[in-house]
């Protein structure tokens, strides 16, 4: 690679990084809000406040639990509380919060972030396998 | 005012149609996006939220980059390659950048020629290639914008499907990026091929993009 190519590539990468930062920059400002919803969710779960935890689920996730014959408030408190938040990623209306021992997926609704799936484990390139949602 | 409109009518027509088509795309795109959101269990978004989203940006940018690439290639390749009989081609034998005399540069510049062609050094070289350079820069920037917005849009889809997001460097070698890119490129190249070949045999009376209706098929002079 000659010097001009290297300079051009560096400029392209810098530009892309800036644009990506601009695109994802808004999400970094929202990271705390997403992490706070996950904390409220697991606080409710670990304190046995099932109804409060279910209020933070996405409507589709609540409907899936009901379709499976599960009572949301009773089943949700069986989730195991994970460790600390390790990473938050927000892309558009979707978010992923990685915690020690768990991954949570959320969607942005007009009333705020709601949990799409929780208690999720990675399965390579396949979608995560989740205890709730998915 | 009337004279201004008449003199700039071609630009004004395409500026207006561009604006109308972009606005219509944003409305149709918003409806399509919201239908997918609802199907995935998500919430629909407002029009302002949609037109500032990565989903709208990637759909716009992927078409822009391919259009600018099409014209960039058309501008550059037609300098070096000819098609006998095509209205879009120079006559055979005139391939290449041509002489300063043919291009009215340097000592052959006229009193009304742009100032850049009467000077020496880098300026006339840059001006000689300014059309291709500007189209090329817009192409590269549009393609870069497609890759950035595409990364964001792809990752939103990944998260909605409970899959991990990817980095920009992974996205630009992904099937999604190249599928979006190549499906636009192939259609642009086909459109150019059609113009080059069909203009040999077909006519559009009054259009500068066509030979005179009575022009012979083997006439290449534009």
TrEMBL record, chain A:
<feature type="signal peptide">
    <location>
        <begin position="1"/>
        <end position="29"/>
    </location>
</feature>
<protein>
    <recommendedName>
        <fullName>Lipoprotein</fullName>
    </recommendedName>
</protein>
<keyword id="KW-0732">Signal</keyword>
TrEMBL record, chain B:
<feature type="region of interest" description="Disordered">
    <location>
        <begin position="86"/>
        <end position="116"/>
    </location>
</feature>
<keyword id="KW-1133">Transmembrane helix</keyword>
<keyword id="KW-0812">Transmembrane</keyword>
<dbReference type="InterPro" id="IPR046657">
    <property type="entry name" value="DUF6766"/>
</dbReference>
<feature type="transmembrane region" description="Helical">
    <location>
        <begin position="125"/>
        <end position="145"/>
    </location>
</feature>
<feature type="transmembrane region" description="Helical">
    <location>
        <begin position="185"/>
        <end position="202"/>
    </location>
</feature>
<keyword id="KW-0472">Membrane</keyword>
<keyword id="KW-0732">Signal</keyword>
<feature type="compositionally biased region" description="Basic and acidic residues">
    <location>
        <begin position="86"/>
        <end position="104"/>
    </location>
</feature>
<dbReference type="Pfam" id="PF20554">
    <property type="entry name" value="DUF6766"/>
</dbReference>
<feature type="signal peptide">
    <location>
        <begin position="1"/>
        <end position="23"/>
    </location>
</feature>
<protein>
    <submittedName>
        <fullName>Uncharacterized protein</fullName>
    </submittedName>
</protein>
């Amino acid at each position: 690679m000659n010097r001009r190519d290297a300079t051009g590539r560096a400029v392209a990468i810098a530009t892309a990084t800036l644009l990506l930062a601009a695109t994802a920059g808004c999400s970094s400002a929202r990271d705390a809000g997403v992490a706070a919803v996950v904390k409220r969710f697991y606080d409710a779960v670990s304190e046995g406040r099932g109804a409060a935890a279910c209020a933070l689920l996405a409507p589709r996730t609540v409907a899936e639990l009901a379709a499976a014959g599960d009572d949301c408030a009773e089943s949700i408190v069986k989730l195991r509380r994970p460790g600390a938040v390790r990473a938050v990623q927000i892309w558009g209306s979707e978010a992923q919060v990685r915690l020690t021992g768990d991954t949570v997926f959320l969607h942005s609704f007009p009333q705020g972030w709601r949990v799409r799936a929780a208690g999720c484990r990675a399965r390579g390139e396949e979608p995560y396998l989740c205890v709730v949602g998915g | 005012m009337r004279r201004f409109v008449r003199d700039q009518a071609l630009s004004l027509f395409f500026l207006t149609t561009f604006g109308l088509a972009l606005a219509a795309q944003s409305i149709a795109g918003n409806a399509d996006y919201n239908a997918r959101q609802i199907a995935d269990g998500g919430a629909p978004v407002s029009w302002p939220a949609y037109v500032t989203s990565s989903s709208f940006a990637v759909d716009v940018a992927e078409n822009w980059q391919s259009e600018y690439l099409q014209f960039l290639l058309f501008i550059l390749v037609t300098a070096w390659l000819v098609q006998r009989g095509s209205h879009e081609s120079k006559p055979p034998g005139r391939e290449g950048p041509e002489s300063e005399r043919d291009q009215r540069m340097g000592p052959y510049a006229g009193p009304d020629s742009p100032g850049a062609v009467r000077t020496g050094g880098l300026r006339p070289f840059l001006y000689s290639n300014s059309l291709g350079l500007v189209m090329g820069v817009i192409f590269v920037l549009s393609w870069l914008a497609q890759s950035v917005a595409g990364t964001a849009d792809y990752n939103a889809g990944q998260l909605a499907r409970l899959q991990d997001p990817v980095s920009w460097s992974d996205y630009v070698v992904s099937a999604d990026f190249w599928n979006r890119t190549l499906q636009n490129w192939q259609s642009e190249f086909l459109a150019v091929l059609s113009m080059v070949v069909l203009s040999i045999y077909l006519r559009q009376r009054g259009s500068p993009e066509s030979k005179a209706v009575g022009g012979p098929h083997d006439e290449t002079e534009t």
